[in-house]
Amino acid sequence: MTTQFEIQAVKIFKALADPTRYKIIRLLSERTELSCGDFDREFDISKPALSNHYRILENASLILTRKKGQHVIVSLNEAVLDKFLPQFRQIHLHQDAQFMEE
What span, in angstroms and rounded, lies between the C-alpha atoms of 67 and 30? Predict the structure, then answer.
């Protein structure tokens, strides 16, 4: 029998299996929150494609969105990330330079 925890874990890992969504979570781990405009500058993909990525991450409960005037602000759902990937920041941030040294 599949538990709710297992169902949520699979959603999270599927969401993070995409390079764009993984990078969104890395960016949000470095900064408190970003607007959709900030993501437009980070990624060379269409707004509808980015919107689809947000929807998948939100469905996996990895991000939270809120309106601030005309802007949509995206933040990391810290509680979910810490529950399912407690050392995400320590392991995944700034690893590119260390990976290249190995």
Answer: 21
Q: Which two tokens stand for residue 76?
A: 């990391």
pLDDT tens digits, residue range 59-93? 999 999 999 999 999 999 999 999 999 989 888 87
* 4-101: CATH number: 1.10.10.10
Residue pair 74/63 in contact by the 8 Å Cβ criterion: yes
Q: What does DSSP assign to residue 71?
A: E
The secondary structure of 6-69, three-state, reads: HHHHHHHHHHHCCHHHHHHHHHHHHCCEEEHHHHHHHCCCCHHHHHHHHHHHHHCCCEEEEEEC
Q: Minimal CA–CA distance to 54: which of 73, 32, 30, 81?
A: 73
pTM for the predicted model, two decimal places:
0.87
What pLDDT shows up at residue 101?
53
> 64 CB contacts (<8 Å, ≥6 apart)?
58, 74, 75, 76, 77
